[in-house]
Amino acid sequence: xxLNLTRLAxxxxxxxxxxxxxxxxxxTKEERAxxxxxxxxxxxxxxxxxxxxxxxxxxxxxAQERDVLVAVTQARASATQTKVDASTLTDPAAFQKxxxxxxxxxxxxxxxxxxxxxxxxxxxxxxxxxLQSQLEGTENRISIARRDYNEAVRDYNTEIxxxxxxxxxxxxxxxxxxxxxxxxxxxxxxxxxxNFNTAPAAPSxxxxxxxxxx
Length: 214
What we know:
The chain has 214 residues and is mainly α. It contains eight helices and no strands. The protein is elongated.
């Protein structure tokens, strides 16, 4: 009878003891990192959804800017066609390919916003102003989502590389691999900014020296 009670006590207490030792820490931190990754993808998708309307609006006023409009469309296609899944987080090459595609899209979007300065009618178009505001807001949310993802990944990576997490990773969670973080780039971390009230700078004029009067 006592032996049975002892076994029952061990069965009940074992999960609590293991939990207190941190056996669940790695899976918990991994899930947090994956959740932050999902938020990054959500924000990138939100940006991709804004682009077709933005391109069409600009085209209505600046069709001659064909090169930039085509570049934006192609960059969007490349970014949305770059396939990612959970395995991407532990595959540096696949992750870098995904980041490069998204950063390239950020760059060409910046160019698109800059050329709007040349077209007063476009700058005053309400649909364009609304899209431009939504794009800036989305770029800001992308920066925040990337930052939060990086923090969650660093926390997870630290756990599987340090004691006692490294012990659990080696004995129990052998599937645990380091995840990849976003690298900071000016294109990825800075939202496109266009000041519609800023007048163009006056051109500089080089004055020839006036000969001295004798």
